[in-house]
Amino acid sequence: MENLVRHRYWWFTISLLVILPGLYFLLLHPLITTGSFRIGLRPSIDFSGGSLWDLRFPGKLPADVDTNAIVDVFTKNGFEGALVQLSSATLDGKPAAEVLVRTRSLSTTDLNSEINTVFAALKTAFGEVTRERLENVGPTVSQESTRSAVIAVLGASLFILLYLTWAFRQAPHPLRYGVCALVAMLHDVLLVLGVAAILGTFFGLEVDALFLTALLTILSFSVHDTIVVFDRIRENLISQRSGEIFDNIVNHSIVQTLPRSINTQITTLFTLTALLLFGGQSIRNFVAILLIGLISGTYSSIFNAAQLLVVWEHREWQRWFRRDDQPTAVA
Amino acid sequence: MRSRDLYSLLLIAIVAGVALFINFAPSQSFLGRDVRFRLGLDLQGGIQVLLQTTSATVTKDEMQTAAGVIERRINGLGVGETVVQVAGNNRIIVELPGVENPDQAVETLRGTGRLEFIDSQGQYILTGTLVRTTGNPNPAAKLTNTNPVSGTATLTPTVATGPIYQSITDGKDLDTSAVLPSFSQGGTLGGIPAVAFAFKGNSARSLEQFTSANIGKPMCIVLDSTVVSCPRVNAALPNGSGIIETDNTESRDRILNQLKYGALPIPLGVETSRTVSATLGQDSVHTSVTAGIAGLIVVALFMVLFYRLPGFLSALALMIYTAISFAIYRLIPITLTLPGIAGFILSIGLAVDANVLIFARLREEYRRGRDIRTALELGFEESWPAIRDSNASTIITSIVLFLFGNSFGVSIIKGFAITLFLGIVVSLFTAIVVTRTFLRLAAPVFSERNAWLFGIDRRSTPSAEPATTAEAM
């Protein structure tokens, strides 16, 4: 039988290698490039406030639209520092240039005249323009959203820890299961945040409310997978023959649940791929992030969470910095 | 075949039948309930506005009154399925599905109310009727949009037809300080609840002239182009001041508020607004439906190919799951948003996960030498703790998401949390009760020769071997 537990430090190394580049862009890259510390994520207007204008130019191709000219129009009408992003879309079945413009948030009292001025100016400059979407988030709402987001992640983690500790109360050391599941979850959060930081740095990916939803889903699926493996460990522990070592029980449990882990992963991949291919532009980032996170979640539950239980069982950290000991299981 | 399984089958048939009936009900109604799909603003287009007071101290009553004024104005515009609700201490959420012209809609919400007395040509016009007056001959034009509204959007006709009535007074001439609760002079002790009012300037003069010429005839009070009431003129109103008799104190208060606070009682600013065009929403509906169908087909195919007959039965259960979920969305009703649909499609994956767990266990038990029936029961029994615990954690997360999604800025998350939560609950029913019943009924068909049909064999694989210490090192 393949001994997955024996190679646990390899699995941890793989995790680290995948997470570290993301961590660099999340924490160090902004510090190095700008000299001041900030989190390397691009918050969307949901979290930073501002407005997002989704405009389409019927009958024009993206190549026909000059983004600088659009920035000019916005700047002249009181929206300095507008960020313009160009893509192609369809409008009534015909191709049209789509432009996403991010600006400061609109005035709370005088927004109509602001909107109308910009549209009048755009029409003069480019001809026909349609407004597909106009989202405007004020500063107080965006601050509340950010606060809620942090509370949601922490709250969900706390409740999952409590539930797992309770659910595994019959197994020895129930708290360990909760903690290990949370560490595996942290693995997935860091990985996904890292990916978002990399994509944000190079492709301008923004972290919005949908991203947050994806992150929270990943958390719950990661724990979902971990529990299936842990449950098998619990069952095998209870029915174990005397003298069987913990490493083997864990390894055996992982191997037993492997077909299920792979099959569930495959079915979820199918549904997500369908969403990615047909699900439309507006949720594409959301689905891509979910896809990455769910793969990470399955990996972390098999190769991190369960393996960490073994590390904890042997208190291996006591030997990590001693040269004479091999960090493998004790037979 | 045991009778318990037959009862289960009957229950499943009834549940599935009701669900299908709700989904395909010809009149789109079930037991008097409207069971059409409710589409969120991101799917049908429309406007969502969060208004926030700019004044520091606001009472709950003032917020409620403001919300009431806004609601009445919106109703006057004839847009279907609108939402007006007070959020927190100082905010009002307004949702206008199908409306595409945010600037003018917002102006309507925040603008001042317009009170008119009109000459109704001797008629009593029903309360709530949208009328055209010389003061505002085309009330609905406020919301007509440049893009025609698509077929999916529910936008009731906003253009009022009918005669244009002569306005006797101009709203801006109403002296709001003179609008007071009063009692009819003709009443006995306590009297009839009434509202005193007074106009100024030209309106006062024309009202005096009109009433002296039309004693005994009706005259209608119109607020924001909507008829509030049509009282009978009992006597001439000198200097444009008089009282409106009402039926009870409730309607007295309502009319009083409308006259006094036709303009919003508190200043409101637009904190946040989201506008989505109907075409963009329609695109999203098409793509999500395609994605959903594709996802369902691929998952069903995978289950059939990998698990054979049990897989087919679970694919069948998956269809029942879909029917039940849709029926629940329609019945409660749950407003479907793009993230909500994503949540549903994701829960398809979760729905088969329980079956995957069970079938994997069934294979294991069969390889250990159990007969099919025992393997079946053990498969369900032994995979239950894992199914329970994993789904419980997902339920916890969806509840946390729901609570947190209530915060306005991220309200789209709520839709996702609801469909995910319902997905788990319904899938527990279909993946366990439905599939189990189907499999029990199918078990007698099983024999060693058609074992392939069940995707199982007695071939021993390493994963089915119990661990031994010899293997470890």
Name its key features.
heterodimer, A: 331 residues, alpha+beta, Multidrug efflux transporter AcrB transmembrane fold, Alpha-Beta Plaits, two-stranded parallel sheet, 63% helix, elongated, B: 473 residues, 2 domains, four-stranded antiparallel beta sheet, 16 strands, 49% helix, disordered C terminus
Largest sheet of chain A: 4 strands, antiparallel
Q: How many alpha or pi helices of chain A?
A: 9
Q: Estimate nothing, just give the exact number of structural domains of chain A.
A: 2
Give the end-to-end Cα distance of chain B, rounded to a whole number of Å: 49 Å
Runs of chain B in which pLDDT lies below 50 for 5 or more consecutive residues are 140-160, 461-473
Number of strands of chain B: 16
Number of helices of chain B: 11
Q: How does the major sheet of chain B shape up?
A: 5 strands, mixed
| Largest sheet, spatial ordering of strands of chain A | 3-4-2-5
What would you say this structure looks like, in words?
- The complex is a heterodimer of chains A (331) and B (473).
- Chain A is built from nine helices and six strands; from the N terminus they run αβαβαββαβααβααα.
- Chain A is α+β, with helices and mostly antiparallel strands.
- Chain A has helices at residues 8-34, 45-48, 67-76, 111-126, 139-167, 174-203, 209-238, 246-278, 284-313, and strands spanning 42-43, 50-58, 83-91, 94-103, 130-137, 206-207.
- Chain A has a four-stranded antiparallel β-sheet. A two-stranded parallel sheet of chain A has the order 1-6.
- In chain A, β3 and β4 (94-103) form a beta hairpin.
- Chain B is α+β, with helices and mostly antiparallel strands.
- Chain B folds into two domains: 3-35 and 277-465, Multidrug efflux transporter AcrB transmembrane domain (Multidrug efflux transporter AcrB transmembrane fold, Up-down Bundle); 46-273, no CATH class.
- Chain B is 49% helix and 15% strand.
- Chain B has helices spanning 3-24, 41-44, 60-77, 102-110, 201-213, 249-260, 278-331, 338-367, 372-405, 412-442, 469-472; strands at 29-30, 33-34, 38-39, 46-53, 83-87, 91-97, 115-119, 132-133, 164-167, 180-183, 193-198, 220-223, 226-229, 241-245, 268-276, 335-336.
- In chain B, the strands form five sheets. A five-stranded mixed β-sheet of chain B has the order 8-9-7-12-13, covered by helices on one side.
- In chain B, α7 packs across α8, α8 packs antiparallel against α9 and α8 (338-367) packs parallel to α10 (412-442).
- The radius of gyration of chain B is 32 Å and the shape is elongated.
- Classes of the chains: A alpha+beta (331), B alpha+beta (473).
- The interface between A and B is large, with 93 and 82 residues.
